Amino acid sequence: MSSENKEIKIFILSWLKPRIRGNAAVFLFFLILSFILWYLNSLRKEMDLNVRFPITYINQPDNFIFAEEPPLYIYLKLHGPGYSLINTSPIFRKRTLNIDLSSVKIEKMNVVNSLNGYYYLISESLIPYFTHQLHLSSVEIVSIKPDTLFLSIIQNPYFKSQSY
Predict the structure, then answer these.
(1) Which of 62, 84, 110, 140 is most buried per CB count within 10 Å?
(2) DSSP state of 63
(3) How far separated are the first and last CA of the chain, in Å rounded?
(4) Are 61 and 104 in contact (CB under 8 A)?
(5) Which helix (H) or strand (E) holds 22?
(6) Residue 43: its pLDDT value, please?
(7) CB-count exposure of residue 45 (10 Å: 0-12, 13-18, 19+)
(8) Residues 6 or more apart whose Cβ sits within 8 Å of residue 44
């Protein structure tokens, strides 16, 4: 009885194996195809994307220096069609945003008993600059974090004003 069961088992397995392998390949193909179609369909919808950008400060006045390290990263929440976000995402990974200190409005903080000058910059005022730098057309910047950039600035002791 056991040898007969073995033969039946071997026969069934030998008959099923080629059919299972072929069906599994077809099933796997259609599974991958359905995932790709689902993903493309989801990209048509409006999406939000949070992206971290390194920032640099340019056009700093020569007579001032940073007393403390300024914030080095800023987080932008972007909203737009998925295709637009995906098309521009490689740019986001390699892009540094510049904050031009000569063209933005920096406010002075009133800090008592402080040797350093403490200033702040409202991040929302930077949205037009960042939109221009990133060349965003169908994507909008929804929010920026942190909402305020704090800067500690002192006078440069090595700066010599040039008089003509």
Answers:
(1) 84
(2) T
(3) 113
(4) no
(5) helix 2-43
(6) 82
(7) exposed
(8) 81, 82, 83
